[in-house]
Input
Amino acid sequence: MDDIVKTYIISKKQFDEEYEYEKAVGSVSDYRRQKIDKLKNAEDKKRSLAASIALNAALKEYGLEECMMEYELGKQGKPYFRNHPEIHFSLSHSGNYAICSIGPCEVGNDIERVRIGREKVAQRFFAKEELDWIYGTEVPRAKDLQEAFNDCDDKIFRIWTMKESFLKVTGLGMSLPLNEFAIMVAENGCIHIRQDINDKTYHIKEYIMTDVLNEGEDYKISVCSETPVFAVQLIQVL
Output
């Protein structure tokens, strides 16, 4: 396999029919099936199942099947493969989609459906550098206010997914306060992470997602890893 982090994306809507859902559930490992069964909401079940199927599609490129994998949990509950510790993966889901990132080194990912009105969350949890980038210093003219608000929502969710992907790649999860590290986006688009939890260098890849389902929703996707080599595009799982 190439030393590259690839990200697979799948729609949960292909499991709307009960027959397709049951067939897919029967194909995943006991570990993943137990996680799905613990969920009470039917849509959450489909999202978790979709993530499992995306993981299986990713593993096929290694000549493996998800149902044959043996899972272990790290100190903060991050799963890894006991029988293949050289393969690293991360799963996330939101709205109608789930993603799986996989590669030769630690990886974290996040997908979020953009919603309006998350300014209070940003102001409470984001670092100063991130808030400066989101809001800037120039006050928009009255006629530009709505465009400015939309731009803020877009930036908030870009930062949020990048921060989540970083939390996942470190294995610390939410035990690390969100304002103790910062995602810094330069004017040229380059992304840097200010952090002092370890001496590693991390890289982030953002993906632009097309509206496959024509649902009029906007999603943000970020993947974080120690390698700077990411697949150029998302891989769609049909």
